[in-house]
Amino acid sequence: MIRPVQIDQAAVVSHLLEGVELTPSDAAAIKGTRDSATLLAKLNELEAPTQAATAVIAKVNSWRDGRSSLRAIDILSPRRPKFVYFDDYDSMPGLVSIPDLVKKRDDEELTRSEQAVVSLLAAAGADLEDFLEPESHEHLVRDSENASNAISEEVFEYWSQNKQLAVKIRLMDKPDTGAVPPLNKAPLLQIRGWEQEAQCDCTF
Q1: Which of 18, 59, 116, 132 is the most exposed place for a label (fewest CB within 10 A)?
Q2: Concatenated DSSP letters of 27-82
Q3: What separation in angstroms does the CA of 136 have from each of 126, 150, 168?
Q4: Could you give the CA distance from residue 118 to residue 126 in angstroms, rounded to a whole number?
Q5: Whole-angstrom distance between the N-terminal and C-terminal Cα of the chain?
Q6: pLDDT of 155
Q7: Which one-letter DSSP state was computed for residue 128?
């Protein structure tokens, strides 16, 4: 439903006449005018309009169709917020095996959600191979923290609704006991969203 733009016409007239010097007779002629259309008509009827009155006439005539409501629309339209609706999206797996991802990537068998993981790491400047053979557990922790920080900066440059969020990457050098394939092949990669204020995390 499209609603008409509501304009305070009296305020428009007051704004147009602010600081405008008129002769006593011209001021009397437009006294009590309550809308811009009537003001324009009365100013056009003046026998010898002042320079200031002529400037008001030119200003109103510069508006689309000479209408204040259309002028308001033309001013506000570029400032109107834009919304993008996505009716399809992918959620990334909470836990993945890096060796399995490498094999699937090389065989071009990645699922859409797995491809999202690979793309997210690539956006942070990290390759899967960076995590395959870390020099030590300390290097594994450092690499995961670097990737977490880089991904957080990349993602939340565009996601501004909540400044308390961060992306946390955890790299596990050993699978859980009894893990089923492919999660029985380490190192494993876990990506979570961390909410600072609530001190909780969730799948990302």
Answers
A1: 18
A2: HHHHTT--SHHHHHHHHHT-SS--HHHHHHHHHHHHSGGG-HHHHHHHHHGGGS--
A3: 18, 21, 20
A4: 9
A5: 36
A6: 72
A7: G
| pLDDT over 70 (residue 137) | no
pLDDT category, 164, cuts 50, 70, 90?
Answer: confident
CB 154 within 8 Å of CB 143: no
- 65: tokens are 């169709």
Cβ proximity of 117 and 191 under 8 Å: yes
Under the banding of pLDDT at 50, 70 and 90, the label for residue 134 is: low
d(CA 151, CA 145): 10
C-alpha 2: how far from its chain's center? 24
Q: What are phi and psi of 93, to 5 degrees?
A: -65, 145
Q: Is the dihedral of CA 111, 112, 117, 120 positive or negative?
A: positive
Angle made by CA atoms 173, 179, 181, in degrees to the nearest 5: 95
Residue 203: which H helix or E strand, with range? strand 200-203
